[in-house]
């Protein structure tokens, strides 16, 4: 199969780039080594749309963060994914930290961050009454927000596929050859794929992928971060995203509301050898809780509904890498996208698509829609809307997940959508079935049943998240 | 809008017993709403025996016990809607439900019985470190896979928690050819019934490791093993006692939580210890006309007691509909000195029947005296050879005793050690 552009990696950057490319009159494939989109760093991070005061003046991170954060609300609207401009606070617990806050303020202003101010203790406690009384003051940024990173990615991939991009899952690139005429041949776990241009958006693996064309310029450190997610009944503890003063490993432990109304605390930061190591550790989680309690002392893990770890692709150069490779100028590296990568992602995708368009002189499609229709969300509907919906399709009258009030109809939509769900976690990320207090205890087996029926495979071939993550063995005696 | 005298939320053993009792008391328009596709509730997947010894005087399987009530329900004019989920209960007792044949149902009820049962505590609440591999599930989910869907959820199994479902699943998995390597219990005693420890573990040579927990899970895709460790008297893992046990499945039987989302949304007062509504002697909640019984009220270990409690709620609902329920002021109950909670939490001073106080102890007690006092007065006292947290206890108080209690008083259930 021959494509104009192959995008390697269906994380938030790859999916948004594929969506941008779907507006062009070219053949595009989006390759993902896992069973679903958003399976790497995108799936497990702080979900913050940062203001843009952290990155040093003049860096790519600074420029793309500010641009991405400005694009995010309208992008989320176009894709019908939740976004909330909840604002953020960087807390200072001493006069020395206040100096740091002041420095961040000045840096932010130079970066072009909007709605930034330094506030005193009283104002902090007025905004966030559960913050520690030890607080001295804070940097308030009202232009930052929160988003659901995997919903954003799922929506972007849906639009891309609807517009003709081919999504190939379980498709791991193992080698890349280049012809005399410059065409790439990618050896993958689903056969050979040929392409004129390649976008390397392979996240934590983008150094390995670059090396496949002899480009060893990318040097990444795998930095693990662990989180606790607390029940919605604890969401009242923080409205803004609450940071502490940053350190050399990142922005430190934050406490934030999520777009779904839960409370998220984390991350820890530990450099690890194994890029696949997203196991949580007792020490990492204990660290997160201890640090978070400095900001919000009344936090309690009794409210935890789950804990998880994510991997950051920290570039040793400390800035985003968005350049055509020095080894091959048809190979675009989009790598080292650590925080504020999610915030910057809309701008990174825009920039990557522009670079390709200019280089290859791609033409825009005459008519192209980059919007996504809002998915059905039974739990948010009025009585009248529900009645109309069930009258149209009975499947919306059968509740599968009681904690989050998810109907069978929504699960069917998730499975049959472009780049739809193929496993239990995929259904969960698209519909929230299994994401509530009982964590799938009640609906998990029903979701397996529905996937089995809709995909036409036996129940014991359904996985939790692809690969060998099967849930059931053979039939009983 | 539909109109019913009594709407019962949940068609398990609690809901059916309450509905049947109200019917027997002469209530005419009764509706049971059940989210599963049959009546019977969790009993449908409990294919082991041990049900009905108290109530029927014989040993039945779960489906047999449920079957006797299902048959009775269908032999009356009680209306039943299965595959129907209740979404909301309003302040004026309007129930909103949904299914895929009627669509949205709006039902005005004179009385409501909450019988939604309970759910299992999931992994996240425990914060076990390690991977997010497939193969970590609650014992009840595993039970459904084996007994209803007919699939094995694992071949080599470690079970965390010695609650009854975990014990039952240890035996069930063994009978199906799986190897159950250990049942680990955080506490120094089991949370399950003694008969289940004997019949499900000891009879099959499955080790029960007390004061032991799972500290880490291993395996990227499917679970490959767990690290277990002994815990100290503060329930913290003791460094150096870690042991790796290879297994493809970790089953959790670490507690049950009454399913009170509907009750909470309706503003019904809950007891922080039981996790269920605060109720009077007829199981009426803080919300007039709304009753609660079975595991939604307090987690039971025997279905026979669920049936008994639910019949009481059925009588109460009938009295409420007729306006003949006791409505004087109430006395409070509470547990102390090792008694974790008492149900009911309040009793009307003009109550018209004997009242059983149900309770659980917080740890194992041997050769102690169980007392009920009101102020300085000892109302009840009895020697007990052994009491364990896994077995619900009760004492019966006579109507005339209750009617003599002073206004505003509190009945305290407590344990006197020798």
What does this structure look like?
- The complex is a heterodimer of chains A (477) and B (418).
- In chain A, strand 21 (399-401) and strand 22 (406-407) form a beta hairpin.
- Chain A has three domains: 2-42 and 150-218 and 318-360, FAD/NAD(P)-binding domain, CATH 3.50.50.60; 83-146 and 221-315, D-Amino Acid Oxidase, Chain A, domain 2 (2-Layer Sandwich), CATH 3.30.9; 378-461, Orthogonal Bundle (Arc Repressor Mutant, subunit A), CATH 1.10.10.1100.
- Chain A starts with a strand and ends in a 22-residue tail after the last helix.
- Chain A has twelve helices and 22 strands.
- In chain A, helix 1 (12-21) packs parallel to helix 8 (341-360), helix 10 crosses helix 11 (424-431) and helix 10 (408-416) packs across helix 12 (444-455).
- Helix content of chain A is 31%, strand content 23%.
- Chain A has helices at residues 12-21, 60-79, 95-111, 121-127, 149-162, 206-211, 282-295, 341-360, 383-392, 408-416, 424-431, 444-455, and strands at 2-8, 28-31, 48-49, 83-84, 88-92, 116-120, 137-141, 145-147, 166-168, 173-178, 184-188, 191-200, 220-230, 241-244, 254-257, 263-266, 270-272, 304-315, 321-324, 331-335, 399-401, 406-407.
- In chain A, the strands form five sheets. In chain A, strands 1, 2, 9, 10, 11, 12, 19 and 20 form an eight-stranded mixed beta sheet that branches. In chain A, strands 13, 15, 16, 17 and 18 form a five-stranded antiparallel beta sheet that branches.
- The model of chain A has no long low-confidence stretch (mean pLDDT 96).
- The longest helix of chain A has 20 residues, at 60-79.
- Chain A has 477 residues and is α+β, with helices and mostly antiparallel strands.
- With 418 residues, chain B is α/β, with parallel strands linked by helices.
- Helices cover 21% and strands 35% of the residues of chain B.
- Chain B is built from eight helices and 28 strands.
- Chain B has helices at 13-24, 62-74, 139-149, 164-175, 194-201, 261-265, 303-322, 399-403, and strands at 2-9, 30-33, 49-51, 60-61, 79-81, 85-89, 94-99, 103-114, 118-120, 129-130, 136-138, 156-160, 179-185, 208-210, 212-218, 225-230, 243-246, 249-252, 256-258, 290-292, 330-335, 339-343, 346-348, 355-361, 365-374, 377-387, 393-397, 410-417.
- In chain B, the strands form seven sheets. In chain B, strands 1, 2, 5, 6, 7, 8 and 20 form a seven-stranded mixed beta sheet that branches. Chain B has a five-stranded parallel beta sheet with strand order 11-18-12-13-14.
- In chain B, helix 4 runs parallel beside helix 5 (194-201).
- The radius of gyration of chain B is 22 Å and the shape is globular.
- Chain B starts with a strand and ends with a strand.
- In chain B, 52% of the residues are buried.
- The model of chain B has no long low-confidence stretch (mean pLDDT 95).
- At the A-B interface, helix 7, strand 18, helix 9 and helix 12 of A face strand 7, strand 10, helix 3 and strand 15 of B.
